[in-house]
Amino acid sequence: MPLLFTTSWDDGNVLDVRIAEMLERYDLRGTFYVLPHEGGESLRNETIRALAEKHEIGAHTLRHRNLPDLPREEMESEIRGSKEWVQHITGKSCTMFCYPRGFVSTAAKHAIAQAGFAGARTTVPLQFGTDDPYMLPTTLQVYPFPMRPRFSQWWHPLDPLGPLRAKWRRLRALGTPIAACKGWLPLAKWLLVYAVQTEQPFFHLWGHAKEIERYGMWEQLEALLVFAKTQDIAPATNAEFIAALRPPSAL
Ligand SMILES: [Zn+2]
Q1: Confidence at residue 162, expressed as pLDDT on a 0 to 100 scale
Q2: Structural domain for 51, as ranges
Q3: CATH of the domain at 93
Q4: How many domains does the chain have?
């Protein structure tokens, strides 16, 4: 059975169009978790509608609020409101939700299910499947690795390998060779081959167009997509993965 190759992209930036065009060049699919247009670089409704023709549009609240911090009524209206807003723009059923900043709570999961979503995406990294549709994890974010791309906190210069350190335990458990940890693209390719060879349910790539631009990662992203097409994969949106849900294979 081919590996499901699913991708998701957060926050609805104008550069999402560049991601969509790149995915289409390789017959791949994206799930775009968008927010209402608030000027600047955020996606306009007509662009979201155009994206919905070839890709999936998911909900991501209306104001990018941390769900566990909100009073129940406000949380429920952010969840329901974003579903209705997406459906109004695309004219299609919106069945996927994405937790802003990855903040999850039991009450939020419950409200998302109650609102009629079939699943919800987290930011949990280095995973290849799940048995909980409301805790859909990810495999790899398009984000600099293994070094910090820049020092934005006073302590960052003391911990330049923070991105590697955060993933180290899990990478070790997967048996990741050191050579695969020398950069983002080698790691992404290794994880993809690992997922294929161990017959995992999916490889889930995700990111923010804004960060791909900020850290100059467009070429690396495209190189991964070219490589992915040489593997035994089947493109899927997040919703299509949820529909075919099966737990990860034993490590
Ligand atoms: Zn977000």
Answers
A1: 84
A2: 3-243
A3: 3.20.20.370
A4: 1
For residue range 97-116, list pLDDT tens digits in order. 999 999 999 999 999 999 99
Tokens of 133: 């549709």
Q: What is the reported pLDDT for 156?
A: 85
Please list the ranges in the chain whose pLDDT falls under 50.
Answer: none
CA of 142 to the centre of ligand 1 (A): 14
What confidence score (pLDDT) does residue 248 get?
Answer: 67
**Whether 32 contacts 56, CB under 8 Å:** yes
Measure 166 CA to ligand 1 centroid, in angstroms.
20
- CA 49 to ligand 1 centroid distance, Å: 19
**Has residue 250 been placed in a domain?**
no
Residue 239 lies in a domain: yes
- Can you give the pLDDT at residue 246? 65
Query: How many angstroms is it from 235 CA to the middle of ligand 1?
Result: 23
CB-based contacts of 86: which residues, under 8 Å, 6+ apart?
34, 48, 57, 58, 59, 94
Q: What's residue 247's pLDDT?
A: 65
Asked if the structure places residue 249 within a domain, the reply is no
**Residue 248, in any domain of the structure:** no
Q: How far is the CA of 13 from the centre of ligand 1 (A)?
A: 10
